[in-house]
Design goal:
mainly alpha; single chain; Ammonium transporter fold; globular; 67% helix; 427 residues
């Protein structure tokens, strides 16, 4: 592994968070823009501190200390056992650099997962509970699943346990994206829709994002950050060589491009004009879906994965909003959970021959997906429900009307500009 190359890749990851932050605030109302950006910054800060203090101990790293238990004659590696406050990580020149690099990458990765649900709770999720939910994610939820997949846990050892290929998630489509998307789904269930989003008979009202230019700029920043994330994770956890990073760069660009163009074409056919906000979601969905396989799939497969992710997200956003009445302003559930699960499944079809047969690869990927849906999603929602009883997630009725900037921060993001009045929203 090329240590400087890996470190440079890790240093690009914050651009993914910056890109998502611009997308989230741009797709929300102008009267909550500053709140969305501050919430993102606070979530990144809380995630970093809590993960170093507690979460890294449970996440661990390959060949590190771990808790195991025996069942059905099998030893199940289920949780890391590193010292708290990263005391087991050493930074002297003679030490193995992998634990330190893993900690560095995971700090940014858990922060990326933590900011995903902020867009789903836009305009109504209070800052205090956002920080509390982030602490829960960074201390327990993310580390547990990360250990299973990236830290040498049981999902990473399916070959030794069941004789099939390991569950593969090179760039975090499961550990970061799907987990963050499920957190967003749980938050939406708890918060309910924004006031005025649905009429008494369940008809949805369009509440367009206030700054699509920043949303599209965020897409470009996210691409650079995603390349860094995919490259660093592939080198650290799957022993990718620097030359293989070229394939990661190419595939990330192709999957994002295919996702965006798929939505442009889909919305052009359905609505006669392309939808800019949905197209931005298609771009991110392509990156999310492509993360599972990164550089292990062919460029043609990356294009196909991105195309399907874009079409899937275009329809999934509509289904969630109009059929299931889930108010997700930034499309986080569809983009991160929906496209993430598709990317994991797609890798089973397009995995290289060295990963085993298609049937074996699909089985391994389906085991990981079943773990996400059957175990992690219920656990995430149960803990969020409990946390909501202690720190109520939703802002009060006045805050719903005034906007999060005024209610929680005391000042708006655009004080010198005339902001749209939402007289159509009932008090």
């Amino acid at each position: 592994m090329n240590l400087p190359f890996c470190l440079i890749s890790i240093m690009l990851i914050p651009l993914a968070s910056a890109g998502l932050a611009l997308i989230h605030q741009g797709l929300g109302r102008s009267r909550s823009a500053a709140h969305a950006m501050l919430a993102t910054l606070c979530a990144l800060a809380v995630a970093a501190i809590v993960f170093v203090a507690i979460g890294f101990s449970f996440a661990g790293f390959p060949s590190g200390l771990a808790h195991t238990f025996s069942a059905a004659g099998i030893a199940w590696d289920w949780l890391g056992a590193e010292p708290f406050f990263a005391r087991g990580v050493h930074f002297d020149p003679t030490a193995d650099p992998r634990p330190a690099l893993t900690l560095c990458l995971q700090i940014f990765a858990v922060g990326l997962a933590a900011i995903i649900p902020i867009s789903a709770g836009s305009d109504r999720w209070r800052l205090g509970p956002i920080c509390a939910a982030t602490a829960l994610l960074a201390a327990f939820l993310y580390p547990v699943f990360s250990h299973w997949v990236l830290g040498g846990g049981w999902l990473a050892d399916l070959g030794g346990t069941f004789g099939i290929p390991a569950f593969t998630d090179l760039g975090g489509a499961a550990v970061i994206q799907a987990l963050g998307g499920f957190m967003a789904l749980s938050v939406v269930w708890i918060l309910g829709p924004r006031r005025g989003k649905y009429s008494a008979d369940g008809i949805a009202t369009a509440i367009p994002g206030h700054n699509i230019v920043l949303v599209l700029l965020g897409c470009l920043l996210a691409l650079v950050g995603w390349i860094g994330l995919d490259a660093a994770a592939s080198m650290l956890f799957y022993a990718a060589e620097p030359i293989q990073i070229v394939a990661i760069v190419i595939n990330a660009a192709l999957s994002a491009s295919a996702g965006a163009l798929a939505v442009v074409l889909t919305t052009r056919i359905r609505y006669r004009k392309p939808d800019a906000s949905l197209s931005a979601n298609g771009w991110i969905a392509g990156l999310v879906a492509g993360s599972a396989g990164c550089g292990l799939v062919t460029p043609a497969a990356a294009v196909f994965i991105g195309l399907v992710a874009g079409v899937l997200v275009a329809f999934l956003i509509e289904i969630l909003e109009l059929r299931l009445l889930l108010d997700d302003p930034g499309g986080a559930i569809s983009v991160h959970a929906g496209a993430g699960l598709w990317g994991l499944l797609a890798f089973g079809f397009f995995a290289p021959p060295t990963a085993g047969s298609i049937a074996e690869s699909l089985l391994a990927q389906l085991i990981g997906i079943a773990t996400l849906l059957g175990l992690m999603l219920p656990l995430i929602h149960a803990l969020n429900l409990l946390l909501n009883r202690i720190f109520p997630y939703r802002v009060d009725r006045d805050g719903d009307w005034q906007g999060m900037d005024i209610r929680e921060l005391g000042a708006g993001a655009y004080p010198e500009f005339v902001i749209h009045a939402d007289e159509f929203i009932p008090r």
